[in-house]
Structure formats: structure tokens, C-alpha cells
Write a structure and sequence with these properties.
Strand content: under 5%
Oligomer: single chain
Number of strands: 0
Order of helices and strands: HHHHH
Number of helices: 5
Helix content: over 70%
């Protein structure tokens, strides 16, 4: 459960640092390099969808990734997770790859620490999303 809270915090902090980095003005004569920030924020969408589905299905709904344990009340939630699982697996894998690659591009610290923090936290959130997606494989 603590990992779930860390995951949500990584999403929120990535968004906050991304907005700070996006709004920060470049010094005169220096190009504004925001492409890597925008790419990593867009790539954070599949992990955010995964986070929301885990919240709905497993934490609020109390369902299970195993249909027999989910029971009659949790069958519809299990079905939702089972239908979305493959898309989330590919989406989170691609998100991890894209956010990892976005960390290789400028801007770099120390003057752009918020940009690097945003991209690193987006990659962390994508990695944790992939971990949850693998760990919660829907089983009949």
C-alpha cells in the first residue's frame, strides 16, 4: 500500500515540477528547450490511467486480480481490469521507454533541476505502473 502512495506522489510531483519547468523563462539568448518535458508529461498518461484503475478496482472496489477471489460483486471490476490489462502493459512499457529516453535530452541541472526532476519522476511512475501491471495479472 505504501508503494501505491509513493506512486501517486510521483505523479503529482512530476506534474508540479513539469509545470515549473515549463513556466520558467530561459536566460536571454538561450533557446527554450521544453520538448523533453512535454514528451515525458504526455508519456505519463498511461501510468496515470493505471494508477486510477488500480484505485478504482483494487483499493476502492476491493476486487482481486483472480476472478474466483473477486466474488460476485467484484466480477465486473475484475472484467474491467482484465480488458484493460494488455493495453496498460504495452502503454506503460512504452511510457517507461519514452520517459527514460526523455531524460537523455537537455535541459540539464543545475539551472534546470525542475525539468530533470519532472522527467525522473515520470520515469519512476512509469516503472511502478509497469510493476503493478505485471504483478496484478488478471487470472481466471
Amino acid at each position: 500500500m505504501e508503494l501505491y502512495y509513493f506512486w501517486g506522489g510521483a505523479h503529482a510531483a512530476s506534474l508540479v515540477f513539469g509545470v515549473i519547468a515549463f513556466l520558467r523563462r530561459s536566460p536571454p539568448g538561450e533557446a527554450r528547450e521544453i520538448g523533453a518535458i512535454i514528451v515525458s508529461l504526455v508519456a505519463s498518461i498511461p501510468p496515470l490511467i493505471t494508477w486510477l484503475l488500480v484505485l478504482k478496482v483494487f483499493i476502492i472496489g476491493g476486487s482481486s486480480n483472480i476472478v474466483q477471489i473477486a466474488g460476485p460483486a467484484g466480477t465486473s471490476l475484475w472484467s474491467l481490469w482484465a480488458r484493460a490489462w494488455l493495453y496498460l502493459l504495452y502503454g506503460n512499457g512504452i511510457a517507461l521507454l519514452v520517459t527514460g529516453l526523455a531524460m537523455l535530452f537537455p535541459p540539464y541541472p543545475p539551472e534546470r533541476a525542475s525539468s530533470v526532476a519532472s522527467r525522473a519522476l515520470a520515469a519512476t511512475a512509469a516503472g511502478v505502473a509497469l510493476y503493478f501491471t505485471f504483478g496484478l495479472f488478471p487470472s481466471a
